[in-house]
């Protein structure tokens, strides 16, 4: 169950205004903090004596006092006591105005005293503070001005202040080897060649082969592209220069291009080496595309990049590796031979890959013998390398927090939930809300168990999670089906029915006027799946027609308007079909819940009591009620949420 949160979308103009206000407030706070901190510091670090204490001392046993220094400018008297550590600062007494009384007392007591006028630097400090604040404000204003100046149509060129500070990083030794990269064997094999190019270029140049200039790594985030690039540098023992594409695209016009020049200059000086450009799609987008025409700055940068890549002759020993997860938006000029002519796809790991990645990251971790990496790998399809690394790390953190010596299965389980669903929060107190969530989740869980083609329940819980999740029913997925992607129509229908089970339970138990917004996530998922059934899989009365190709999503790189491939009339028919599927499944869900109402109530009571029911226990209870035998499921499958 997902309680939806309101997200307000503001226009970019008002956002930048807010940024401006934010900067000013920030400066103001900083300035105040600064002013307040000057006297505070003074008081804390010096030992003081009160005025009356000093007078008392002078009147009584003035033998204590070694020497007194009166400083009218700073309005203090410094008192050195007898036997005081010479290295310690004197006691300070704050004075008011001139003190004839003190001077008289000093003279009477016969203490060694001195009136000294130190240069009055308090005024100077004040002035400096003010100046500092002024500079900060001025800097902030300039920043805002420049930002707005660079907005489309603004006088961007006028504010151009040219030379870049190099923002790329250089690592002489990355320390990463191919051993640290697992599960993407094909990519590694292809890149092995690049290592040889860097190590023994003669081998290739001797037979007249041209060494490739650029390699483009294509793959979703977290699959190890950056790691792979570092491993190449590490294996070849060459320096690694890296910069992110977004760093080229600055608010200062022309800086991007000059950064490219700088980067290539440095790289050539350090050849052989690797230049790694992360997120190249940030600069390398199709030119002249996007909303409101092209972005001059980005195009200049891209042109500079192309020029540089053409400019240096092959065989200089500089190999550029770029990474992107959006190859479709890249400018075709980048992909021309002689530039990024090698393209290596880095896919999300399969089961075997996940296992190997887990093995790499388990090397430096203490795992309990009960933990099977195979089991984890089986339960984590769709996890990229970075997710798996994160998973083991989270589990290690949980282990430390629980003061255990070794990572156990419980920690792994909890870490998986934490990553896929969110942090678990403290359970709700008994309330109507908690009951409602329990009914919603039991609705899902019961249908997962009753429907013949549904994936079985792994567990159902009403312990809330961060991100507004009030509770969830988790399924154990069928790995074969996920890997092959061969979902049946029956499976899809049952999935839709199960997804609507939460809402159906709310409806049946609390009445149609008490249903909540908590089912919004379920309904969205249902709408998506039902639409795909109609428009892509030909599973409706409209027959075997594909109305939409896969991946027809809109992005701003190439075209803004999706091309509509069917008429208004067909669109209406599609909508009707989608609605028909949802309606059919919903009535089935309602029917099943009505039929099992006493069981639902019993399960809800148990869930309220236990807060979590494991799949096996749940199935046992359902079997007792229906009189049908329980099916056994292994836990080593894939969990997900509803
Ligand atoms: P990308 O650049 O593709 O987004 P990264 O290379 O930055 O992904 O991966 C982030 C982290 O995830 C790496 O530092 C590493 O710890 C882990 N990781 C990702 N892929 C792999 C892999 N194939 N083998 C081992 N660790 C990996
Ligand atoms: Zn739900
Ligand atoms: Mg990366």
UniProtKB/TrEMBL annotation:
Subcellular localization, as worded in the UniProt entry: Cellular thylakoid membrane
InterPro entries, sorted: AAA+_ATPase (IPR003593), AAA_lid_3 (IPR041569), ATPase_AAA_core (IPR003959), ATPase_AAA_CS (IPR003960), FtsH (IPR005936), P-loop_NTPase (IPR027417), Pept_M41_FtsH_extracell (IPR011546), Peptidase_M41 (IPR000642)
Annotated positions binding Zn(2+): 440, 444, 522
Keyword Lyase annotated: no
EC number(s) on file: 3.4.24.-
AAA+ ATPase domain segment(s): 211-350
SUPFAM superfamilies found in the cross-reference section: FtsH protease domain-like, P-loop containing nucleoside triphosphate hydrolases
UniProt entry keywords in alphabetical sequence: ATP-binding, Hydrolase, Membrane, Metal-binding, Metalloprotease, Nucleotide-binding, Protease, Thylakoid, Transmembrane, Transmembrane helix, Zinc
One Pfam family of this chain: FtsH_ext
UniProt main location, coarse: membrane
Family to which this protein belongs: Belongs to the AAA ATPase family.
Subunit organization: Homohexamer.
General function of this protein: Acts as a processive, ATP-dependent zinc metallopeptidase for both cytoplasmic and membrane proteins. Plays a role in the quality control of integral membrane proteins.
Protein name: ATP-dependent zinc metalloprotease FtsH
Native source species: Oscillatoriales cyanobacterium SpSt-418
Gene: hflB
């Amino acid at each position: 169950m997902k309680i939806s949160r309101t997200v307000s979308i503001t226009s970019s103009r008002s956002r930048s205004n807010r940024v401006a206000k934010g900067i000013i407030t920030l400066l103001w706070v900083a300035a105040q903090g600064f002013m307040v901190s000057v006297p505070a510091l003074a008081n804390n670090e010096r030992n003081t004596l009160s005025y009356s204490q000093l007078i008392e001392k002078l009147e009584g046993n003035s033998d204590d006092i070694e020497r007194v220094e009166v400083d009218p400018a700073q309005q203090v008297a410094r008192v050195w006591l007898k036997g005081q550590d010479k290295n310690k600062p004197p006691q300070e007494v704050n004075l008011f105005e001139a003190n004839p009384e003190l001077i008289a007392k000093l003279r009477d007591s016969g203490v060694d005293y001195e009136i000294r006028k130190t240069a009055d630097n308090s005024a100077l400090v004040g002035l400096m503070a003010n100046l500092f604040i002024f500079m900060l404000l001025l800097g902030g204003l300039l920043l805002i001005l420049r930002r707005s100046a660079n907005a489309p149509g603004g006088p961007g060129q006028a504010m151009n202040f040219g030379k870049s500070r190099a923002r790329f990083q250089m690592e002489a030794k990355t320390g990463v080897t191919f051993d640290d990269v697992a599960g993407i064997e094909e990519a590694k094999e292809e890149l092995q060649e690049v290592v040889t190019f860097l190590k023994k270029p003669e081998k290739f140049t001797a037979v007249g082969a041209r060494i490739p200039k650029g390699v483009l790594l294509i793959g979703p985030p977290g699959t190890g592209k950056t790691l792979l690039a570092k491993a190449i540098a590490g294996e070849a023992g060459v320096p690694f220069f890296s910069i992110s594409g977004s760093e080229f695209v600055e608010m200062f016009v022309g800086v991007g291009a000059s950064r490219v020049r700088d980067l290539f200059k440095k790289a050539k000086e350090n050849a052989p080496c690797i230049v790694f450009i992360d997120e190249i799609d940030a600069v390398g987008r199709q030119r002249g595309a996007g909303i409101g025409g092209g972005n001059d700055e980005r195009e200049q940068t891209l042109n500079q990049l192309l020029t540089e890549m053409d400019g240096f002759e092959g065989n200089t020993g500089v190999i550029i590796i770029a990474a992107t997860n959006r190859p479709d938006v890249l400018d075709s000029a980048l992909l021309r031979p002689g530039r990024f002519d090698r393209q290596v796809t880095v896919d999300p790991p399969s089961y075997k890959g996940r296992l190997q990645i887990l093995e790499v990251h388990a090397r430096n971790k203490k795992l309990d013998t009960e933990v099977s990496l195979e089991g984890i790998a089986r339960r984590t399809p769709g996890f990229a390398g970075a997710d798996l690394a994160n998973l083991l790390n989270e589990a290690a953190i949980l282990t430390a927090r629980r003061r255990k010596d070794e990572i156990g299965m419980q920690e792994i389980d909890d870490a998986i939930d934490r990553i896929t669903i969110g942090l678990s929060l403290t359970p709700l107190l008994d309330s109507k809300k908690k009951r409602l969530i329990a009914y919603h989740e039991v609705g899902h869980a019961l249908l997962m168990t009753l429907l013949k083609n549904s994936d079985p329940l792994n567990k159902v819980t009403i312990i809330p999670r961060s991100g507004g999740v009030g509770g969830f029913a988790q399924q154990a997925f069928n790995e074969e089906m996920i890997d092959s992607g061969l979902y049946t129509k029956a499976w899809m229908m049952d999935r839709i029915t199960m997804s609507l089970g939460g809402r159906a339970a709310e409806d049946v138990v609390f009445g149609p006027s008490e249903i909540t917004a908590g089912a919004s996530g379920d309904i969205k998922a249902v709408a998506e799946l039902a639409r795909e059934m109609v428009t892509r899989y030909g599973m409706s009365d409209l027959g075997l027609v594909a109305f939409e190709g896969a991946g027809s999503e809109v992005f701003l790189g190439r075209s803004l308007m999706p091309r509509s491939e069917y008429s208004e009339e067909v669109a209406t028919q599609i909508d009707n079909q989608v609605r028909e599927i949802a309606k059919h499944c919903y009535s089935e869900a309602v029917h099943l819940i009505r039929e099992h109402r006493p069981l639902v109530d019993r399960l809800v009571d148990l869930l309220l009591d236990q807060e979590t029911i494991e799949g096996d226990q749940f199935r046992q209870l359902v079997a007792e009620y229906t009189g049908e035998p329980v099916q056994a499921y292994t836990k080593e499958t894939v969990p997900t949420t509803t």
